[in-house]
Specification:
Number of strands: 13
Distance between the termini: 54 Å
Low-confidence stretches: 1-21, 389-393, 399-482
Strand content: 5-15%
Strand order of the largest sheet: 2-1-4-5
Radius of gyration: 27 Å
Order of helices and strands: HHHHHHEEHHEHHHEEHEEHEEEEHHHEE
Mean pLDDT: 79
Shape: globular
Helix content: 40-55%
Structural class: alpha+beta
Length: 485
């Protein structure tokens, strides 16, 4: 049969190819919500540029069930009602039906957010909001419906809390730009960003893409949730609680115009949530970028931290910048001092003398921390791993967990175990013969002894131990940085 209009066939094929490409790009979207037709509309655009009739997809029981599965996987603490994820799971079907009924009737009201203070490395605290399990489920359902609408708008330089992206993607982008010669860096810090986002301006951005009134009202109700502590209760006039399911998406949305501004101005910005750096080829360019960022921040009701915002030349010693736990300075990558201190504190907490757990439990708690820390920071200067940590070749703790220094045993196994310890000096504690000569030098003055101090978590190297594998071949110039992976 002859085709009457060959051009229409070509256009139809192009439309199918575009829809297929959008589907691959949105592999993370919930298939029960985002059908092929909706995904195609993301690429082709919708009438008036705004989405409507979304509330029915939020309140469907199948959407709430999928949201509950995500909340259950993330676990988390109980909110102000004291209901934990485990307690909710016992009667999840009944609770989800109640949520569906309330949302459908328009009688659902969010509960107050429980606020706790999380210690920071500098002695200060960070406020964390803990919604109830039911509120987290509704927020997760909302996010599943509206996230793809905004995700297709976000720029390449934004990496924080986005599907398929993470810290290493942002670090790799910084590494690439440094190698290209953009060594003058605007290191900016937004002061109290999550607590200072203006609600009216944020909702205006949301309404720019969504016209469903009930969805907008539901989002706004979460922004105006009461906050409760042990002694007080109040309603915030700005910000999105850190810890809420919707907060990362809304925080990214509010900084999206800044991403566009920097991109249109020709600046190379790498952003992870509210933490961002702008990498420039000259000092004059960096200062101009900082002036533009300062003007935008002031106009949007935000504040740059005066002591933490600066322009630096990352090639010069003492002029580096910190980003996502790393410090880039003098053409080298280091572990940020605060990150190293936090790691040592974690090790001390898990190996404290007064801990009454079995060795098996201590090992089970300690080794995941060591492996995870090394996996993230393995691209830092390798001398750190040779001199400052007690890790063995695969990122685990070595065999010595003795609280007292003893001569090194040449056959010590590299991984800590719950069996007899080769370094134990107690009578009857080990089937191995122990050399019992008295110590003749302090631990810190020899490399032939080994010990782990319960107070400082420091390890003294011993003779015969294999050196820690060098994660990267280190050089002293920016142009030879090794790729993050």
């Amino acid at each position: 049969m002859e085709q009457e209009n060959p051009g229409s066939a070509v256009k139809a094929k192009q439309g199918r190819d575009a829809a297929s490409g959008e589907t691959r790009a949105l592999w993370w979207a919930e298939a029960s919500i985002w059908t092929d037709r909706m995904v195609s509309a993301l690429g082709n655009g919708v009438k008036g540029g705004k989405w409507f009739s979304l509330i029915d997809k939020v309140i469907r029981l199948i959407t709430l069930e999928a949201a509950w599965q995500r909340v259950a996987r993330n676990k988390g603490a109980a909110g102000v009602d004291g209901q934990s994820v485990e307690r909710f799971a016992y009667q999840s079907a009944r609770y989800l039906l109640e949520l569906h009924t309330e949302l459908k009737a328009g009688t659902y009201r969010p509960s107050p957010v429980k606020r706790v203070e999380i210690p920071k490395g500098d002695g200060k605290t960070r406020p964390l909001g803990i919604p109830t399990v039911k509120d987290r489920i509704v927020q997760a359902a909302l996010k599943m419906v509206i996230e793809p609408i905004f995700e297709v708008q976000f720029r390449e330089g934004s990496h924080g809390f986005r599907p398929g992206r993470g810290c290493k993607d942002a670090l790799h982008a910084v590494d690439r730009l440094l190698k290209e010669g953009n060594t003058f860096v605007v290191d900016a810090d937004l002061k109290g960003y999550f607590d200072s986002i203006p609600h009216d301006r944020l909702m205006a951005l949301v309404a720019g893409s969504i016209s469903d009134g009930r969805v907008l009202s539901l989002i706004e109700s979460f922004l105006h949730q009461d906050i409760m502590t042990d002694t007080a209760r109040w309603q915030p006039d700005g910000g999105t609680p850190q810890g809420a399911v919707l907060s990362p998406l809304l925080a990214n949305l509010y900084l999206h115009p800044l991403d566009l501004l920097m991109e249109q101005s020709g600046y190379r910005m790498v952003r992870y949530a509210d933490d961002f750096v702008i990498l420039c080829a000259s000092e004059a360019e960096a200062k101009a970028a900082l002036r533009q960022v300062t003007a935008w921040v002031d106009a949007k009701g935000l504040t740059l931290h005066p002591d933490k915002t600066k322009v630096c030349d990352s090639r010069q010693p003492g002029q580096g910048f910190d980003f996502l736990g790393y410090r880039f300075e003098a053409g080298m990558r280091f572990v940020r001092a605060k990150s190293l201190k936090a790691f040592k504190d974690k090790v001390r907490a898990r190996t404290i003398r007064s801990r009454g757990d079995s060795l098996r439990q201590i090992v089970a708690d300690l080794n995941p921390v060591l492996r995870g820390w090394f996996e993230y920071f393995k691209h830092a200067r390798p001398r750190l791993f040779r001199s400052s940590t007690a890790l063995s070749g695969d990122g685990c703790a070595p065999s010595c967990v003795s609280r007292r220094s003893v001569p090194a045993w040449a056959g010590a196994r590299p991984i800590i175990e719950d069996g007899p310890m080769h370094s134990s000096r107690g009578r009857g504690c080990s089937p191995y013969r122990q050399p019992m000569q008295p110590r003749d030098t302090p631990d810190e003055e020899t490399s032939d002894w080994r010990a782990v101090c319960g107070r400082t978590a420091s390890t003294v190297r011993r003779a015969g131990r294999a050196t820690f594998p060098t994660p990267i071949g280190w050089v002293g110039s920016v142009s030879q940085f090794t790729r993050f992976s």
